[in-house]
Design goal:
The complex is a heterodimer of chains A (about 170) and B (about 130).
Chain A: E1 2-6, H1 14-24, E2 28-32, H2 40-44, E3 47-61, H3 71-75, E4 81-84, E5 87-90, H4 100-104, E6 110-125, E7 128-135, H5 143-153, E8 160-165, H6 168-171
Chain B: E1 2-7, E2 25-30, E3 36-40, H1 50-60, E4 65-67, H2 73-81, E5 85-87, H3 94-102, H4 122-126
Parallel strand pairs in B: 1-4, 4-5
Antiparallel strand pairs in B: 1-2, 2-3
Helix pairs in contact in B: 1-2
The chains are: A alpha/beta (about 170), B alpha/beta (about 130).
Chain lengths: ~170, ~130
């Protein structure tokens, strides 16, 4: 059974409720998906065994191959690429990692390089398996980290799973 | 010199739009001849990245200077890289802005004057 504790408003007690439920159960996997400010660790004091970086693929342009055709900038739905003459400016913080620019480039001048946007930490707290995601301060996109947390959680065994999430991000479509 | 002025309308009588990336549109004026044309802002309603998209348009139109109220960090980075001179704090009508430019009363800026999302209004700008 998965118990998700969610609220569109901050400061309403998601962490308090999630932590309390988790401590009252026997076999629990606790996942703090509130990656912008994961606070459950303050109460659960987990021993972190592993820290896994979370990356997003962002474009890297080989200027010796670029012809300045601008197809990448025209394609980019997030306006993360700007072409000035034969120079391509990349705005990594605006990139959503779709990879479209690498596919559309006729000169094959665009490769992807990983950009670290945060970390996933796993470990134990009391008798529970603990996991949390931490978004780097100033980075705008929380969902890739939440997605990876949820993907990892499927591989761990347990009975109950308690999540805490801050869905304001989802509500605004971010 | 070819000036790009963020504006609320399409001619010299239109007001200067204080926002660069989210401006309603632009009037592009040749300060030597007085000839002008209007340009829509492809990014006025963009979900994100308005500054970079609007700046790309300015570059493509061949403008050499931008006159506006405020300019955000991403648009600044693009225009700066393209060697386009930026003047901020501009107000009044587009004609006033051109006159101020011609009389040398405008100040160039060497840093963004507004934070990201400042011109988008509503939730994004205020959050």
């Amino acid at each position: 059974m998965i118990i998700a504790v969610a609220s569109g408003k901050g400061g309403t007690g998601k962490t308090t409720v999630a932590v309390s439920i988790a401590l009252s159960l026997d076999v629990v996997q606790f996942v703090d998906c509130d990656v912008e400010e994961p606070n459950a660790a303050i109460f659960l004091r987990p021993v972190i065994a592993e820290k896994i970086p979370v990356t997003m693929p962002v474009p890297e342009v080989d200027e010796s191959k670029c012809s300045g055709c601008r197809k990448c900038a025209e394609l980019c739905a997030y306006n993360a690429l700007v072409v000035i003459g034969k120079r391509v400016l990349v705005f990594p913080h605006m990139c959503h990692g779709c990879g479209g620019c690498t596919l559309i480039c006729p000169e094959k001048a665009i490769a992807v390089k990983p950009r670290e946007i945060g970390t996933i930490e796993t470990g134990h707290a009391h008798s529970m398996e603990f996991m949390q995601g931490i978004l780097n301060v100033g980075d705008p996109m929380a969902t890739p980290i939440i997605g990876q947390l949820r993907a990892r959680q499927r591989f761990l065994h347990t009975g109950y799973r308690t999540h805490t999430v801050r869905p304001a991000r989802f509500a605004s479509g971010g | 010199m070819k000036l790009c002025i963020s504006s609320t309308g399409k001619d010299l009588q239109a007001g200067v739009d204080p926002r660069f990336g989210r401006a309603a549109g632009y009037v592009i004026v040749d300060s030597d001849t007085g000839a002008f044309e209007s340009a829509e802002n492809p990014a006025a309603m963009a979900g994100g990245g308005a500054g970079t998209k609007a700046a790309q348009m300015v570059i493509d139109r061949g403008a050499q200077a931008v006159l506006t109220g405020n300019i955000g960090p991403n648009a600044f980075a693009v225009l700066n890289a393209a060697g386009i001179v930026m003047y901020t704090g501009v107000s009044g009508s587009v004609q006033d802005a051109v006159d101020a430019f011609n009389s040398g009363r405008l100040q160039t800026v060497s840093a963004p004057t507004a934070p990201a999302h400042a011109g988008s209004g509503g939730r994004r700008g205020c959050s």
